[in-house]
Amino acid sequence: MPRILIVDDDLGVLRALGRLIHFMPRSALGGDAQVECHDDPEQALARVQAVEFDLVIVDYLMPKLHGVGFMRRLDALHSHAARLLLSGHARVLERIEAVRGLGPIEIMPKPWDDEKLCLAISRLVQTRQHQLSPSRPPPYARPPLPNRRQPVF
After folding, report:
1. pLDDT digit string (tens) for 46-72?
2. Sheet of strand 105-109, all strands in order from the earlier edge strand to the far edge
3. Apex CA 93: angle with CA 87 and CA 94, to 5°?
4. Does residue 6 contact residue 18 with C-beta atoms inside 8 Å?
5. Residue-wise pLDDT tens digits, 1-34
6. 42 contacts 66 by C-beta, under 8 angstroms
7. What is the Cα 16 distance to its own chain's centre?
8. Could you give all domains of the chain from N- to C-terminal order, each with its CATH number?
């Protein structure tokens, strides 16, 4: 059961993301997701200290702590959660430069395309779950083709 943390100062965005994830197919997430939403980044970081999350979705521009600062604090807490940064304000080059050195972070625009965001969430959660249990094949690996003899005509 994946655990997802959403951090955004906009309550409407928190509700929209929570609903979007709630209605994603269980197969896309590897089970029913537990979603926590926080509009205060400091409270969210306190939860990260108590709970291991599979995915953290963070807004880039928040009044108390911007998204990149939040990601740096995640690193300091040794969180291994997959990360998704949402941005409706920063220019592309600033966003890329800001997250350099923070490990793999997916960046999505706000407003987002529901289908693209669901695919990114699914990929990040399933990749993280594969890291936790490597006996499962990664979600992007295709099963081997059956070794069947083909008739020769």
Report:
1. 999 999 999 999 998 899 898 889 998
2. 34-38, 3-7, 55-59, 82-87, 105-109
3. 60
4. yes
5. 899 999 999 999 999 999 999 999 999 998 999 9
6. no
7. 15
8. 3-132 (3.40.50.2300)
**DSSP letter assigned to residue 85:** E
Amino acid occupying residue 74: L
Take residue 62 and report the two structure tokens written for it: 């928040």
Q: How many CB atoms lie within 10 A of CB 92?
A: 10
Separation of alpha carbons 143 and 18, rounded Å: 32
Q: Residue 78: phi, psi to the nearest 5?
A: 60, 35
Contact 121, 84 (CB under 8 A): yes
* Cα distances (angstroms) measured from residue 16 to each of 42, 62, 89, 102, 118: 21, 17, 18, 27, 12
